[in-house]
Amino acid sequence: GAPGPLHCTMRTGTEEKAEAQEGGGPEGGDEPPSVVLGNSRAALLRHVDLSPEEYAHSFGWQVLHAAYLAGGGALFILSSTIYFFEYSDLRSAIAAGGYTVGSVAFFVVDSLELATAESGTFIATNVCISLMGSLCYVWGSAAYIPSIYAAFPWLGNLGFVMGSFLIFVSQLWKIYRIGQSPEAASGIWADTDARSATCVELGACIGSLCFLVGTTMLWFGDLDPTGIFTVYLIWMLGSICFTMGGCFLMHRHFALKLV
Fold first, then answer.
1. For residue 1, with 0-12 CB atoms within 10 Å meaning exposed, 13-18 middle and 19 or more buried, which class applies?
2. Distance (Å, whole) CA 14 – CA 67
3. Coil, helix or strand for 12?
4. Does residue 20 contact residue 14 with C-beta atoms inside 8 Å?
5. pLDDT tens-digit profile of 111-168?
6. pTM of the predicted structure, to 2 decimals
């Protein structure tokens, strides 16, 4: 679910230089970052001989990070478009499949971010909320497959409502963190770094809000065809916002050279 840049995750260049002068680690010791972090996620990254900080700055990580977010959003657009056509079980199954694969892509984005976050920090907790939201999206999407939906019509809606709420809360927290970071002392629009990060996070923030509102309307509203069409429009807007977040992330990583 959406998911975003590690604007407040990495230490600044000034901090890193100061640590290097003191002995190479955050506490002035001689341990490399991967040892200082001392968590299981760091251990998972040692096979590539990169610390979590270096991993997030690597080209491969940034390609996957941006591509999965934008690709997941594009699949949401495709799936939302299918619902505007005349209903058939085949079309509905294709749409559900697109949402499911797109949700898995969002989950991968969250997993990549979690791999670079230190255990026990607010950052890790923030990312975990997004990851749980993406898991709810996977469950909700799969439950829209016609055979499952016929047996449990509430299951898919519940997954999307829960997932959207978790992602929306997580994105609001990320935007708050951007505004509180030392690099953005004047707010979320203070400089290029802050503006870029905010645009990325707003994409998933607005996208999740659209799916929260639209799915709630579909679930609890007694909708006529015009009302259902409105829900599909809201879902399409949310899908576009998710995709725009991925496009902003591509620009952030490859044009601005920022994590």
1. buried
2. 30
3. coil
4. no
5. 999 999 888 889 999 999 999 999 999 999 999 999 999 999 899 999 999 999 999 9
6. 0.80
Angstrom distance (rounded) from CA 197 to CA 17: 24
Can you read off the two tokens belonging to residue 95? 């749409």
- Whether 29 and 36 have beta carbons less than 8 Å apart is answered as yes
DSSP state of 145: S
CA distance 239 to 229: 15
Q: Answer yes or no: are the C-beta atoms of 252 and 197 closer than 8 Å.
A: yes
C-alpha 20/C-alpha 1 separation (Å) is 36
Residue 71 has pLDDT above 60, yes or no: yes
DSSP per-residue string spanning 85-99: SPP-HHHHHHHHHHH
